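WARN retry 2 of 3 for item q-0093 after timeout on previous attempt; input resubmitted unchanged.
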Amino acid sequence: MDTYIYTYENQKAFEKKRQGLRFQKSGKITGNLESSPYRYNTQEDIIPKNIRFDLYIGTWKKASDTTVTLLFPSNANMNGTFVISKLTEHELKLRKVFDAATEKKLDSIRRTKDISYQ
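OK item q-0093 returned
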């Protein structure tokens, strides 16, 4: 992840120490996501010292040709709408969509870090 741009590579199984998503055609999604006793939202700047990953079940739906909406009822870390900036057989890049004020702040950060959406 880099400034809310998530890059996933196609793999047969989840790695224990890395975030991952498995989309099913039925609209269900399995996520190997960061667990937190506080169930913090990724919009906060809290980064746990000992990151643990657990499996969570949620749902996904196509919001448009270029966006998907993810919902994990028991873990808000990856809830929201994401723009698909890259989709190949081997790689998926998702960029989280925030409200206008947060997007403006993140755009400023992205420019200073020279982050590409490719």
